[in-house]
Amino acid sequence: MRGKGVRILIAILVIVIVAAGGCLAYKIYQEKNKPVSNEEVAEEPAQEKQVQIFKGNDRPIAVMIDNHKDAWPQAGLNDAYMVYEIVVEGGETRLMACFKGVDVEKIGPVRSSRHYFLDYAMENDAIYAHFGWSPQAESDIKRFAIHNINGITESAETFWRVKDKAAPHNAVTSTKALEAVAKAKNYRTTSDEESVLNYVPDEFDLEGGQSATTITIPHSKLHTVSYTYDETTKRYNRTARKIAQKDWTTGEPISTKNIIIMKCENYTLTDGENKGRQGLNNIGECDGYYITNGRAIPIKCIKKERNEKTKYVDLEGKEINVNDGNTFVQICPLDAEISIEGVEEPAETEVAQ
How many domains does the chain have? Predict the structure, then answer.
C-alpha cells in the first residue's frame, strides 16, 4: 500500500512538471509572436558619414613649394588638402601646400617664405616649412611665434637636394622628416582646430551660378593658370603657362575637386632691397568665386585679422558648403581678367498661361 502511494505521488509530480513546462513554452511562443508597435521599435542610429579630406587630430603641415618653370614638375600637390597660390616678385607665383594625416615621401621643390603666406599657415593652425625667407617673413615668423622649420638650418635628413633638378629648384622633404623635426623642437603635433572650409561629406552640385568647364586665371603677364573640367572624374586638371601639370613622382595630372578664386590687391614693397617683393591687402572683404563639379558661383572672401580664418560666403552672406576633396585657392591681382567658360545653357522660356 505504501509503494502504491509513492507511485501516485510520483505521477502527480510528473503531471505538474509537464504542465509547468507547457505553460512556459506557451508564454515563450506568445512573446515571440507578439505584434510589436512602431513605438516599441528601437531603430539603430544611422552611421554618420565623415569628411575624408580633413579628419583626425594630426596638426597640419604647410610647405612652401617652388613654382618657377625650372621647378616643374612638383611633388606632393595631389596629397595636400589645400594649396594656396599667390604672386611673388618678378610675376612668378609660389605655392603653399597643406598636409594633414598623410604620409608623403617626396614634397617639393621647397622654396623660401613670403610673409603673406603666413596668414594662411596660421589660419590652418599649421607647422610651417620653408627653405629660407624674405626679411618680412623672418620678422613675422618671430612676431607671431609661428612654429616653423627652415630648411637652411636643418640637416640633409630633413631637406635634401636631388640631382635631376638644378639648385635652387631641387630641395625636397617628406612629411615624416618634418614630423620628426617638429617633435624634436617640441612643437605641438596635434590640433583640434576646425577646417577653414565648411566641408560636407555628401557630394553636391552648385545651384545657380554659371557653367564652369574651363577656368583661366592670369596672375601676371608671365604666369597664367587654367583648369579644365573632367566630367568622368568630376575634377579639374591644372595647366600653367599652357603646360599640363603632372606630379613629379607619379606622373599623374595635378587635379583638384574645388577651386576658390580670390581677387586681392598686391603691391611692390619699398623695402630698400629693390627686389620687387610683393605685399598683399588681404584683410577685409575680397570678391571671388567658388567652383566645383562644373559650376561656379560668385562669393565674398572675408578675413578680419592675419591670424584669423578666412570665411567664404555667398552673396547673401551665408557660409558656402564645400565638396569633400582637395582645394586650390588662387589669390590673384584685382586687375586679373579671369575667364570662366562652360557649356552653353538653354535660355529659360516663358510658359503660356
Answer: 1
Q: What is the pLDDT of residues 94-139, one digit of tens each?
A: 999 999 999 999 999 999 999 999 999 999 999 999 999 999 999 9
Model pLDDT for residues 158-174, shown as the tens digit of each residue: 999 999 999 999 999 99
Residue 331 burial by CB count (10 A; 0-12/13-18/19+): exposed, middle or buried? Answer: buried
Residue 6 lies in a domain: no
Residue 196 lies in a domain: yes
Q: How far apart are CA 247 and CA 77, in angstroms?
A: 7
Rounded Cα distance between 313 and 298, Å, is: 9
Distance separating alpha carbons of residues 292 and 325, to the nearest angstrom: 10
Query: Which cell numbers hold the place of 23?
Result: 505553460
Closest to 181 measured CA to CA, from 140, 160, 150: 150
Residue span of the structural domain in which 255 resides: 61-341
Q: What is the CATH number of the domain that holds 111?
A: 3.50.90.10
Nearest by Cα to 184 from 147, 152, 156, 159: 147
Q: Tell me if 49 is assigned to some domain.
A: no
